Amino acid sequence: MDKKIDKKSRTWQKAALYGGVAILAGIIISAIWKDSGTSKLNVETERLLLDTVRQGVFQEFIPVTGIVQPIKTVFIDAVEGGRVEEKFVEDGAMMKQGQPILRLSNPDLQLNYLNQEANTVAQINQIRNTSLLMEQQSLSLREQALDVEYQLDLFEKRTNRNAELYEGKIIAKVDYEETQDQYEHLLRRKKMLGRTIEKDSLFHVLQQQQMNTSLDLMERNLAIARQSLDNLVVRAPFEGQLSGLTTELGELITKGENIAQIDDLRNFKIRARIDEFYISRIFIDQEGSFQFAGQTFNLRIVKIYPQVTNGAFEADLVFTGETPAAIKKGQTVSIKLELSAEEEGLLLSRGSFYQKTGGNWIYVVNPGSNVAHKRSIRVGRQNPNFYEVLEGLKPGDVVVVSSYDNYGDKDELILK
Question: Rounded to whole angstroms, what are the CA distances from 393 to 350, 359, 364?
């Protein structure tokens, strides 16, 4: 017997089915509408490098490489040429000021000194003989003056006596006049001798000054020649370490040739090589620092070499505080050279994304999801560790800082 089916009992099931289909269709349509015009790319999370934007202290600096050098170096050149006869020390020795390094021989220089010394001795003897003759001449004139004084005294007395005798008519007038003429002659001779002695004294003083000047000049010339001989022994100009000494016994050294150098190891400087891009931003007294043996040591630029070679220029830095005790000449250090003061800012770690975006946009991970979307940003200054973010990000934002080379221009990244 057939049973009658009640059609009304199935109506609610159909309604529920149609409603579910409608809701699913709505969800699909909504998703399609929402995602219309948005390009996406699935990426593996393991291949990404993420960073959290944070507030912190930003300082613009550049890393440069420096070489430790003695703060004072003096090159030793041969003042006189000659053949190496003796080496007193070897390369690398610690020297005291004035300590001999090499002894040279130069027969021509030695012969020249001997000839000059002989000529000087001969000139000195000649000057002394001339001075002796002049003294003898002065003594002779004084002796003549004394004789005239004596004769004058005698004739003065004789003239006075003859005047009395002449008045008494005892002697003739001619005898009296003869005595008076001799007396007057002696007076004139005395006067002339006085002038001669005066001129002789002045001439003697002038001649003595000229001879002393000539003698002093010859003695100085001889001292120079003697110094030339002394220069055949090459000595350390100050205390320090000897380096660059490669000469050997019997080697011929020319005048002015560099022999070695002395380095003052009591203090050091660092010569840094800086990219020419920063030449307009490097100044005297600019500061830097480097890490050595677990400590930070501060530096200051004292000299800038403006010559650019192979795309870089050099600058000398000295220590502003303590100098590392174990640092050595020729050692290479990495210096943090400051280009600005420390300032508060929004920091973003450096990454390979910058090569693709130029710092104009970045992928930001949506909080609580596995989606990273593209966002426009603006960065300012940078250092080897961070970019300074000026716009587009806030503290706590999580961003993708690894390379974007495989992402094209996708608007979103789906993190798997």
Answer: 15, 12, 9
The token duo for 26 is 């709505």
- Amino acid of residue 413: L
- Which residue ranges make up each domain of the chain? 37-58+343-415, 61-68+264-338, 108-230
Please name the residues in contact with 205: beta carbons below 8 A apart, sequence gap of 6 or more.
Answer: none
SS3 string of 277-311? HHHHHCCCCCEEEEEECCEEEEEEEEEEEEEEECC
The pLDDT profile of the chain, 416 residues, written as one tens digit per residue, is: 445 545 444 555 666 666 666 666 555 544 444 454 567 888 888 888 899 999 999 888 999 999 999 988 899 998 888 999 999 999 889 999 999 999 999 888 888 888 888 888 888 888 788 878 888 888 888 888 888 888 888 877 877 887 778 787 777 877 778 888 888 888 888 888 888 888 878 887 888 788 788 888 888 888 888 888 888 899 998 898 998 898 889 899 898 899 999 998 888 999 999 999 999 999 999 999 999 988 999 999 999 999 999 999 999 999 998 888 888 888 999 999 998 888 899 999 999 899 989 889 999 999 888 898 999 999 998 888 999 999 999 999 999 999 988 888 888 888 87
Asked whether 396 and 53 are in contact (CB, 8 A), the reply is yes
Indicate the class that CATH gives domain 37-58+343-415: mainly beta
Give the architecture-level CATH label for domain 61-68+264-338: Beta Barrel (2.40)
Residue that is written with structure tokens 């221009």 in the block: 409
Pairing of strands 94-95, 61-77: unpaired
